[in-house]
Design a protein that fits this description.
The protein is an all-alpha fold and 403 residues long. It has helices at residues 3-20, 26-33, 37-61, 67-87, 91-118, 125-154, 156-177, 193-200, 206-224, 226-234, 240-262, 267-288, 292-320, 328-352, 359-381.
């Protein structure tokens, strides 16, 4: 595996830490800037919206740039807004930096995914995707708890400074290791934007992207409300919250590692097994939430299944998107973050409706049922063309078997 792929994973680790660290800093930000907790919570929403909007926008804006230039620019903006965020006394400025930082993060993600898979042979595309996505899972295990610890001892601004500092080695590494070529580095004329959009929204990719959004919606719906589930339904003390987050992150890291090794050879099996197992797994957590032992045992398993399945789906999008070489990474990033935005919102609605602290987990199970229905309907409706594998070997989730 080229060292440049691991460099991209390092940068994603720093950015993933920024994306999720606010969960442990909201109270400190609210007190320091004299705003309500809900206003401080909007900082997370601003980042999510920026990710959804920024992925296609930044990918289109940078499609004619050399890859190294695009990655360096996005990283530089990301570092700069965190420095501004660490210094500002203004809530409005901080809110703006979260949105702009998300735009830069989304642009980096979109370019990084397509860059990583372009540097390896077909048999290693799944592993390359897993390395990049693995940066997020390492952020969950190490970065987010570290950010919370910094915020507790030195204030929330120290966490912003830490993200900026951790990003600097990634800037230098990208400068030294990422090729400077344009586009797909093939020398061919770039694909027209209209053709890329048509390919990305076509019948081959659309159901995969929808399935990805539903899987991530289920993941972040339950993940966002683990703390009240464990402390108020399972009966664990508040000290178990960082432990449960670390367990989920460790499982997630294992999931992307395993998926990276098997998604190339068995894409249909990995995705189908993951969808079915996640449906059963979220339902099992909702039913077993009253048992501390069962709940803590299921959390890392669900992290492994969620991020393993998500990695396999991203690999499928990148493998199918020959007609959208620039926007393939953007489509994956948008679907991922659309799910991360809608899932917690749906879980919050269930909580507000008075269905109890297990309700978000049941919503996750329901979202997985919808993902299974999308996959099953797509597989049933697809007709094999001459020379294709039979449908059982070429479900539209893979649209043609192996990468």
């Amino acid at each position: 595996m080229p060292i440049a792929v691991y460099v991209l994973g390092l940068a994603v680790f720093a950015q993933g830490t920024s994306e999720f660290m606010l969960s442990g800093l909201v109270s400190g930000i609210a007190a320091d800037l004299d705003v309500s907790l809900s206003a401080a919570g909007l900082l997370t929403s601003a980042f999510a919206v920026g990710m959804v909007v920024g992925a296609p926008l930044m990918a289109l804006s940078s499609r004619a740039w050399p890859r190294r230039r695009a990655l360096l620019l996005f990283l530089a903006v990301f570092v700069a807004v965190h420095v501004v965020g660490a210094l500002t006394p203004s809530y409005g400025v901080l809110l703006a930096t979260r949105f702009v930082g998300a735009l830069a993060n989304a642009g980096f993600w979109a370019v990084a995914l397509t860059t990583a898979v372009s540097m390896v042979p077909d048999r290693l595309k799944g592993r390359a995707t897993a390395v990049v996505v693995g940066g997020v899972t390492v952020a969950c295990v190490v970065g987010v708890p570290a950010g919370a610890l910094l915020g507790e001892h030195w204030g929330w601004r120290s966490a912003f400074w830490a993200v900026a500092v951790v990003s600097l080695p990634a800037v230098l590494a990208v400068l030294r290791s990422i090729p400077g070529g344009r586009g797909t580095d093939t020398g061919a004329a770039p694909v027209p934007v209209r053709d890329e959009l048509r390919a990305l929204t076509g019948p081959r990719l659309r159901p995969v992207l929808l399935t990805m959004a539903l899987v991530q919606g289920a993941t972040f719906c339950a993940f966002s409300y683990l703390e009240p589930l464990l402390t108020r339904e399972t009966g664990l003390g508040a000290g178990w919250e960082p432990v449960s987050l670390a367990l989920f992150g460790a499982g997630s890291f294992a999931g992307v590692t395993v998926a990276g090794r098997f998604a190339d050879a068995r894409p249909v099996a990995v995705v189908a097994t993951g969808l079915a197992a996640l449906t059963l797994g979220w339902a099992a957590l909702a039913l077993a939430a009253g048992s501390p032992v069962l709940a803590l045992a299921l959390i890392p398993l669900l992290g492994m299944l969620a991020f393993g399945t998500g990695t396999a789906l991203i690999t499928r999008v990148l493998g199918l998107a020959s007609g959208a070489p620039t926007l393939a990474g953007a489509g994956s990033t948008t679907a991922f973050n659309l799910g991360a935005t809608v899932g917690p919102w749906a879980g919050g609605l269930a909580l507000d409706a008075g269905f109890g602290y297990r309700a978000p987990v049941w919503v996750s199970a329901l979202l997985m049922v919808l993902a299974l229905l999308v996959a099953a309907t797509t597989a049933k409706g697809r007709r094999p063309r001459a020379g294709e594998r039979r449908p059982s070997e070429a479900v539209d989730l893979s649209a043609g078997g192996r990468l």
